[in-house]
Design goal:
Helix content: 10-25%
Number of strands: 12
Largest sheet: 7 strands, antiparallel
Structural class: mainly beta
CATH architecture of the largest domain: Sandwich
Radius of gyration: 28 Å
Shape: elongated
CATH topology of the largest domain: Jelly Rolls
């Protein structure tokens, strides 16, 4: 449906307020009757991702990793909503003292149940390798805690999570929708 202006004005002539107001009223009526409002799409809007729910980072190394350990300050607690999906991403640079070790960064829930891990082989001693575990969860409503942990899976070396202001280790939780 196209909009037709009720009153047309001729250049260089005086204009009275009544026809101008009629034009505005006509445009207002057209907008109100033909365009949809945001309220009409509340259910659609609820499906959209809500974005970042939490973020934590560290810029200091954590060493002497052999058995599974919590990574210091890489724990997040947030309030989850029912039926929504959340993406948990971890990032860290791992290093070992012995070539050909395999270390992992794990994403776990607050009880320590592993949800995902990324375990890059460390082929060269004292070289760093990125570990980026990603988990998609639908936890149900309420307070939820997720954390990053690290461990040596195979080998004999001692691992270090290396982090700095240039390359922080982090965990981020994002609401990705219904």
């Amino acid at each position: 449906m196209a909009y037709t202006t009720p009153n047309v004005f001729v250049p260089n002539t005086f204009v009275q307020s009544t026809p101008v107001n009629a034009n505005f009223t006509g445009l207002e009526n057209y907008i109100n009757t033909t365009l949809e409002t945001a309220a009409a799409h509340t259910a659609d809007i609820a499906l959209l991702p809500k974005g970042k729910m939490g973020y934590a980072q560290v810029t200091a190394n954590q060493g002497s990793i052999t058995a599974i350990v919590d990574l210091t300050s890489l724990t997040l607690t947030f309030t989850a909503l029912a039926s929504r999906y959340y993406k948990i991403t971890g990032f860290g640079l791992l290093q070992t003292t012995v070539a050909d070790d395999v270390f992992a960064i794990h994403i776990t829930d607050g009880a320590g149940t592993q949800l995902q891990q990324a375990s890059p082989p460390l082929r060269v001693a004292n070289a760093t390798q990125a570990s980026i575990p990603i988990a998609i969860v639908q936890p149900g409503a309420g307070s939820k805690t997720y954390k990053l942990r690290a461990s040596r899976l195979t080998g004999t070396g001692t691992g270090t999570l290396t982090a700095s202001s240039t390359f922080p280790a982090f965990i981020v939780i994002e609401d990705i929708g219904l």
